[in-house]
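Interim report to the steering committee. The following record documents the input for Proteasome assembly chaperone family protein (247 residues).
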Amino acid sequence: MSGIDVLRADVAFDEPTLVEGLPGVGLVGKLAADHLVETFDMVHYANVHCEGLPPVTTYATGDRELATPVRLYADAARDLLVLQSDVPVSPGAALEFADCLGGWSVDAEVTALYLSGIGREREEGATPALYGVGTGDGGERLGAVDIDPPTEPGLITGPTGALLNHALHTDATAMGLVVEATPQFPDPEAAAHLLDAGIGPLLDAEIPVAELTEHAAEIRQAKRRLAERMQGAEETSSQARPLGMYQ
């Protein structure tokens, strides 16, 4: 059955924010989402059974319990939900996935924060550029914490683009954060900047990111295979691109 299967009816929110962590360029969204779940010791809140997701199950080291590949985690104290995904969403399923998750977000009165990387090389030690876009009241929320608007025209593709399109079409409040990320490899430094300069201010929360920056090499190696699969699907994965590429 398609939809969001809530497992924890005992978890209550006031005005929750959902941080989406689908794999994409530099794996910045997945790295950021995984970091939030681990750092805040979030509880498994719901399973995501949207149409088009691969019919697979996942398991973790030292745990015999199987899990769905796409899940929601919750931190009621911070009014926070995080979408954690172990698989990319295929291009053919992007619209169905956006209707499923986006529709649930609207019904549950959740403000969504979508994450995307824009593939660009940068010098070692350089801070990646970060900017924000929004629908509904999202632009005002971004401006209130001094997150810059884009410096060039562009578009966001893949399932993250479909989710933002759903928010625009339904006049829902949503925000999108775009960060420069190395296209060929997982980019923990970009994910750390995304958390520190984007997600943290929007959540009004301190998010320690030393684990990402100090262990960047190990993280890159651990996530290398997923990044390689995402490169193979570069034309359809979630990413931001300068609009000039289509003109």
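The chain has a mean pLDDT of 88. The committee is asked to note this result when reviewing the revised timeline.
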